[in-house]
């Protein structure tokens, strides 16, 4: 192996995820995570080993690289895997091509033109329905027929490491007749995965479930920050607005769909039978272990959630097919989030709303403090990896500190 990759690294030779990094002497550019290092693809391009216009590797987003198409981007990934294993490859004896991740600054991997958030975990939707509606009829009548979603705000999607300020807005206190204005008292995380579109479509075109994977470049971890008290007051009749658009945080490395192929699994049985345009063949869910930790300021992390992407009722192919069935066009870099990923067990719920059950069951931290929702000074960290025998492919983490309201 050209470079040492620690055992159980998220960034094994089976992964080769793409991202945008910079250092003190390297401008933002395309890199690949390899163990604890980054392979500088712009520097590799100077060896004249790629047969495409390598100017795309010097850009500060992946959009132009992704636009080359999967035939080229997959070939680049396979070449890198081959070079890393070959002691006599073009990478041999060239330590200047590698940068330590600890010495690099990560940036938003893509320019996100449009962002859609789905609501595709049946366990999450059922939990929320029990809390806010009728426990006997927790799911709304449309939920098992369409992948419910809404258009979110692309401009406030940020990369791991960038802190957020507690948002302010209107809330309606219990037993009050009029709303008040101020910082949210119910700041929450939502454990999600996001996929990045890899091809454009024209207005009027639709993408089938059969072709959807050709239009998905890769995935990131996604924290859909939410202000529950603001949301409760505003969401009727048009859905989430200020409760969601203040920030969403993503992991910096984009794991390709091809790297996740060994982890495909069958999804839950869908009853009633879906309409033909949502029907699909084969395995479309992915066995990706997910966890969430909360680190109070000056204290140690407490793991509060262990979940898995395989639980999703609606899969990515169905989400994309539904999104485009009316002719809505998509662009390279568009991002679509899964919705909160909750399992059946109490510790697999993907939000504080569920974990603390609307504040009635506070979650204890290692330092003895308790959380109904997220406090100022808390850092929330999402992690994810897939493992199949010796093959491990991970996402690293998305970590965000909450600062007081401005």
Question: What descriptors fit this protein?
Answer:
406 residues; alpha+beta; 8-stranded mixed β-sheet; 5-stranded antiparallel β-sheet; 7 helices; 14% helix
Structure description:
The chain has 7 helices and 26 strands. The chain has helices at about 40-45, 65, 70-85, 120-130, 230-235, 315-325, 350-355; strands spanning about 20-25, 25-35, 35-40, 100, 105, 115-120, 150, 155-160, 165, 170, 180-185, 185-190, 190-195, 215-225, 225, 250, 255, 265, 285, 290-295, 300-310, 335, 365, 370, 380-390, 390-405. Strands 6, 7, 8, 13, 14, 16, 17 and 22 form an 8-stranded mixed β-sheet that branches. Strands 4-3-2-1-5 form a 5-stranded antiparallel β-sheet.
Quick rundown:
This protein is an alpha+beta fold and 406 residues long. Helices cover 14% and strands 29% of the residues.
């Amino acid at each position: 192996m050209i470079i040492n990759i620690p055992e159980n690294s998220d960034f094994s030779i089976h992964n080769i995820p793409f991202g945008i990094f910079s250092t003190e002497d390297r401008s933002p550019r395309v890199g690949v995570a390899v163990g604890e290092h980054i392979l500088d693809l712009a520097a590799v391009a100077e060896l004249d080993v790629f047969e495409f216009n390598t100017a795309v590797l010097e850009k500060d987003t992946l959009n132009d690289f992704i636009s080359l198409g999967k035939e080229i981007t997959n070939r680049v990934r396979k070449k890198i895997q081959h070079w890393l294993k070959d002691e006599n490859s073009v990478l041999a004896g060239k330590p200047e091509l590698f940068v330590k991740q600890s010495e690099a600054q990560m940036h938003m991997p893509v320019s996100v033109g449009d962002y859609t958030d789905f609501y595709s975990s049946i366990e999450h939707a059922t939990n929320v329905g029990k809390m806010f509606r009728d426990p006997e009829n927790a799911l709304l009548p449309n939920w098992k027929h369409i992948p419910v979603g809404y258009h979110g705000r692309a401009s406030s999607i940020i990369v791991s490491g960038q802190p957020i300020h507690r948002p302010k807005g209107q809330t309606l206190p219990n037993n009050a007749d009029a709303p008040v204005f101020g910082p949210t008292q119910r700041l929450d995380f939502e454990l999600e995965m996001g996929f990045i579109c890899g091809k454009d479509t024209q207005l009027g075109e639709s993408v089938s479930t059969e072709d959807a994977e050709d239009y998905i470049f890769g995935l990131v971890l996604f924290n859909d920050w939410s202000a529950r008290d603001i949301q409760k007051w505003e969401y009727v009749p048009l859905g989430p607005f200020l409760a969601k658009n203040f920030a969403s945080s993503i992991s910096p490395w984009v794991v390709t769909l091809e790297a996740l192929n060994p982890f495909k699994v069958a999804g839950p049985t869908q009853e009633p039978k879906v309409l033909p345009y949502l029907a699909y063949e084969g395995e479309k869910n992915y066995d990706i272990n997910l966890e969430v930790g909360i680190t109070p300021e000056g204290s140690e992390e407490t793991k509060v959630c262990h979940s898995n992407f395989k639980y999703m009722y609606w899969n990515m192919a169905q989400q994309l097919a539904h999104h485009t069935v009316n002719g809505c066009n998509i662009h390279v870099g568009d991002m679509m989030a899964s919705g909160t990923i909750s399992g059946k067990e109490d510790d697999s719920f993907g939000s504080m709303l569920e974990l603390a059950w609307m504040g009635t069951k506070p979650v204890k931290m290692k330092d003895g403090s308790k959380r109904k929702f997220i406090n100022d000074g808390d850092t929330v960290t999402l992690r994810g990896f897939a493992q199949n025998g010796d093959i491990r492919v991970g996402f690293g983490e998305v970590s965000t500190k909450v600062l007081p309201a401005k």
